[in-house]
TrEMBL record:
Organism expressing this protein natively: Enterovibrio coralii
Domain of life: Bacteria
Lineage: Bacteria, Pseudomonadati, Pseudomonadota, Gammaproteobacteria, Vibrionales
Protein name: Uncharacterized protein
InterPro entries: Ptyr_pPase_sf
Length: 154
């Protein structure tokens, strides 16, 4: 059987150039905004692997209390900036490779979510209240380590 056009194989140089042009995968962390945990997750991922991902954070409540998040991150010597933290409505027309919801309440708000390739549900509350910040930051850190091991070593 004859094909219409021959496909040219990429040489090593062209393959490397194609890899360099590839954009970084985008990750959107989503929380309800009560404690700013999406900002915590974004900051930890940026701290560990910002060269591999475009990372943003969002919240579903009317506002987001970032004070506890920044205080917690400062304790671990991780930069805290809310320059990529916005209400979920700001992202409705965007596409993400990964949407990571930090708690069931973050997706039960009824607000429209952006388009995404993969949805990853976490439950930082483990079915209860999110009061123990150290435990929650450890949980987020562990989940990010697992996410990185799956993504970077596939």
């Amino acid at each position: 059987m004859k094909r219409g056009k021959m496909t040219q194989r990429l040489t090593d140089d062209r393959f490397e150039a194609a890899l360099k042009q590839r954009t970084k995968p985008s990750v959107l962390f989503l929380c309800d905004g009560k404690k700013g945990y999406s900002l915590v997750a974004q900051s930890i991922l940026n701290h560990k692997a910002d060269t591999y991902f475009n990372c943003l954070s969002a919240y579903t409540n009317e506002d987001c209390n970032i004070e506890p998040a920044c205080r917690t991150l400062k304790h671990y010597n991780i930069d805290c900036t809310d320059k990529h933290l916005d209400p979920i409505d700001a992202y409705t027309n965007h596409d993400f490779d990964y949407l990571i919801a930090l708690s069931p309440s973050s997706v039960q708000s009824g607000k429209k979510l952006p388009r995404y390739e993969k949805f990853i549900p976490w439950d930082i509350t483990e079915g209860g209240e999110a009061e123990d910040q150290e435990r929650i930051v450890k949980y987020i850190n562990d989940q990010i380590n697992y996410f990185l091991s799956v993504y970077l070593y596939r």
